[in-house]
Amino acid sequence: MLNKGTTKTSSNHAFYQSGRPSASGNHELLEDIRPFSKADFGDDFTWGVATAAFQTEGAWNLDGKGESVWDRFTHTKGKIKTGDHANVATDFYHRYEQDIDLVKLMGFDSFRFSIAWPRLLPSGTGHINSKGIDFYHRVIDYCLENGITPWITLYHWDLPQALQDQGGWTNRDIIGWFTEYVDLVTRQYGDKVRNWMVLNEPMAFTGLGYMAGYHAPGVKGLDSFLSAAHHTTMCQAEGGRVVRYNVPHANIGTTYSCSHVDPIDKLPWNVDAANRMDAVFNRLYVEPGLGLGYPTKAVPILRRIEKFMKAGDEEKLPFEFDFIGIQNYFRIVSKYSLFSLGLFAKEVPATKRNVEMNSMNFEIFPEGIYHMLKRFGSYEGIKKLVVTENGVCLPDQLSNGAVNDFRRIKFFEEYLLQVLRAKKEGIDVDGYFVWTLTDNFEWSEGYDPRFGLVHIDYETQQRTVKDSGWWWKELLTSG
Q1: Among this protein's residues, is 201 annotated catalytic?
Q2: Does this model's pTM top 0.85?
Q3: What average pLDDT does range 50-70 have in this prediction?
């Protein structure tokens, strides 16, 4: 495994390149032709950047932190495409002040980050690690000192390995484990933090982690997935209730990965296949949370989830969230397939469709975010929406101390236009968070995909604001 990064710290918090307004000289031109302004989104619109603990913090075994499923997964040969690990990652644990300075520099008013469960509870339950508690107090306090509003994600995939050893999300006991964790976090930080997200993309961490085995903990099987899915849906509601009790005036949400699904053509069997994929990828978690139950009518094999349900579960699944987070990266195009474990549908890869793609071979499809905002905005039980993640990975190159990522700037213009389109059509979308602040560890893909507004040299940990970061500064601070 490659050892990306270093734990060396700098006494100078400005350990990044920030002196030049543009590598390309195009920023004034871009500002002149930008098809919208910050004001078009309204005075109360939230502008932020999002990160995740495992992808950035490093310090994987320092100051009492316990092992997570992703620590174990990345230390297992062959699990990460590039052979990388996140022992250091972007060293946010030691450099959080530098990175929050960058949030402020680029003009954002909010910073979304996650709490690492095993940093607070090394064994998942029981013993509390005071050094972990103190670390997040420092992060929150530094945000507040700099006028940055913290938005906390309670669970962004880094389950304590000690709990996975007992079955993880497939073990019904996780409902109690999770509520203990949420109770601790909200009692510690609830007097400082108003904005909370319970889970990050449950379809991703259950589907990839307990069905496909592509992500941690690397489990495969339909029953593993369905049991994990039900316990996750229970936890999203129970977690919300704990936050509401401990932080009465909290703004509580949870986030979903959302992909607009189109059939490859209008043939009825392909249209039906697209509807089934939509039910699994876009409806499986939000609808039970709204009291609509699991979408078993659309996908009959999902009825097998009932064997993991106990009396009274269905009544406990709903929770009245204050907002729902939409996270959109690509479109799915599907067609009928006999070979798909009861779904009778499969994706047609972007590589076979002659479309524009990011560096992970996902389609760049700006209209998709509009469709998902409209779709989720049509649910009667959803009060408002926030785009809690949206961004693009590109093969960025650092040249002469700058990164000219013009295509990423174009990406944000195209997607923000679609967000504004939905907003003008009456969809209550109240914020937008860029994924992500800095280049970081992209899960099973390692360090090759670069999503950040800030370039990271993983050998030196030097930060360089990309042209897209300067573009955001102009958008958010130019009046």
Answers
A1: yes
A2: yes
A3: 98
